[in-house]
Design brief:
By secondary structure, the chain is mainly α. The chain is 75% helix and 0% strand. It starts with 6 loop residues before the first helix and ends with a helix.
């Protein structure tokens, strides 16, 4: 049987999946899904829809099974990191590392500058390490605790964390996505980073101004420093706070900055945190660390402060099972969509609408967003559009950095805005919030949703498109 994939095949599957996910995440008033507030089962129904459509097209089950396994394989590195970060958070809380960071943060930061400080510190951390995930697991968890202590909106704090973390991840030469995007486009890392500076810098400046306005208007009036004092006192009652306990995050940052791979770098943080915990915390033992590694840290008794209890009782591999299981299901869906070519026919239709360099940049970014939603893994949203559009950029005589910039300006940053994407699921497990719905961080993740819009706007102005031949002539003239 001939396997002819048509546009309507893909649109039906995408329509069903999007409707299912929206009914769950946004808690729409849908009688079929009343009371459903999680995404695993709706995502699995999306897998079923994709599989049934593929079988109707003519694919065999053995082929679909391989596609699903291939999809999962592409996300295995993310799954491993999820598990290891869960261990890190559990150990760091039991060892007093995270509580110490929160304690001193409450002493130093004021509500008016808090959000801007969060963006800046997370930016520096992510630039130095090249990892937004590591930044969220360390600085993000600490800043979230500080925001609870100040009585601030946690969604706003998470938005500031993501804005800083993804800015650093996008611009750091140490970042995997910053290396992957130019590799797909056909340029080098430093050319890619230099080309991103203008649109990324403008977006980042806007973010800082907006968070500064938040700090001097709505945030400062809502801050309750008595709650901060109570949180600090509660932490000091449970843990022995010592500046030396800030060393494990420094070790992780230094290790990754020295180009130690992410997993060994995070593992160094786990071992250094556990060792210091057994030295400084009376109740921290090898046994308690092992328990926290899987089940997370657990208080012996409630502190009486809900914010403290909710903040400290987290971490462990078990806390990451939500993200790990969702990643597996989502990548089953992505594997079918890519392997059958259903994603490809959608992209081909988008390419037909492209008649200008700015239109090509827009099409690239739209494809990256669709990839993040339908084949929900950040790397795939860079790899697949990169492969599909590279030739189109060459045909238009555009520099490959135009493509790599578009890939990073959408594929990298919008992954955090899709709750069932590996990045969105990771944020939910690490920071406890989802992107959309009641209390969602999406609207406050300003850098993440503004970056693709700024880049498209600048493409139409002509600032993020560059003619390849003119670039070459400019380089020769500079050398001469």
């Amino acid at each position: 049987m001939k396997k002819t994939v048509k546009l309507w095949h893909a649109l039906v599957v995408l329509g069903i999946t999007i409707a299912l996910m929206a009914s769950s995440i946004l808690e729409l008033d849908n009688p079929l899904f009343m009371g459903v507030d999680e995404v695993h089962a709706p995502m699995f129904l999306g897998v079923c829809a994709a599989a049934i459509m593929a079988l109707c097209i003519g694919f065999k089950w053995d082929e679909l099974e391989k596609m699903m396994l291939d999809g999962i394989y592409q996300a295995l590195q993310s799954i491993i990191i999820l598990a290891v970060v869960g261990i890190l958070v559990g150990v760091w809380i039991d060892a007093g590392v995270v509580p110490t960071m929160i304690y001193y943060g409450l002493k130093i930061l004021s509500p008016k500058i808090f959000l801007v400080a969060v963006v800046l510190i997370c930016s520096i951390t992510s630039l130095a390490t090249g990892t937004s995930w590591g930044t969220m697991a360390s600085m993000g968890v600490a800043f979230l605790g500080i925001s609870y202590g100040m009585g601030l909106n946690p969604a706003m704090t998470v938005g500031a964390v993501l804005s800083g973390a993804y800015f650093g991840d996008k611009m750091s030469p140490l970042s995997d996505t910053t290396n992957l995007a130019p590799a797909m486009a056909g340029t080098d890392v430093m050319t890619h980073v230099k080309f991103m500076m203008l649109p990324t810098g403008i977006t980042y400046a806007i973010c800082l101004v907006v968070f500064l306005i938040f700090g001097f208007t709505g945030v400062s009036g809502a801050a309750d420093m008595s709650q901060a004092a109570a949180l600090g006192a509660a932490i000091a009652d449970i843990f022995r706070v010592n500046p030396i306990l800030i060393l494990p995050p420094v070790i992780v940052i230094a290790a990754i900055a020295m180009k130690v791979p992410a997993l060994p770098g995070i593992t160094l943080g786990i071992f250094s945190g556990g060792l210091l915990g057994m030295i400084f915390q009376p109740d921290c033992t090898l046994g308690s660390l092992l328990v926290a590694s899987y089940g997370g840290f657990s208080l012996d008794a409630s502190t009486g402060l809900e914010a403290v209890d909710g903040l400290l009782e987290r971490g462990g591999i078990e806390s990451m099972l939500f993200s790990i299981s969702l990643t597996i299901i989502a990548m089953m869906f992505g594997g079918i969509m890519e392997g059958t070519g259903m994603m490809g026919v959608v992209v081909e239709q988008i390419k037909k609408l492209v008649h200008s360099p700015a239109g090509l940049v827009t099409a690239t970014e739209v494809t990256c967003v669709i990839s993040n939603a339908t084949m929900p893994e950040q790397y795939i949203s860079i790899i697949i559009p990169g492969r599909m559009y590279a030739e189109e950029y060459r045909k238009m005589g555009l520099h490959p950095a135009c493509l790599s910039n578009a890939l990073e300006s959408s594929g990298t940053v919008t992954s955090a805005l899709v709750p069932w994407n590996t990045c969105g699921a990771y944020i939910h497990s690490t920071l406890g919030l989802t992107a959309w719905g009641a209390g969602g961080y999406g609207v406050f993740a300003i850098f993440n949703w503004l970056m693709p819009l700024v880049n498209i706007l600048m493409a139409f102005v002509g600032l993020t498109v560059a003619d390849l031949e003119n670039v070459r002539l400019a380089q020769k003239k500079k050398k001469a």
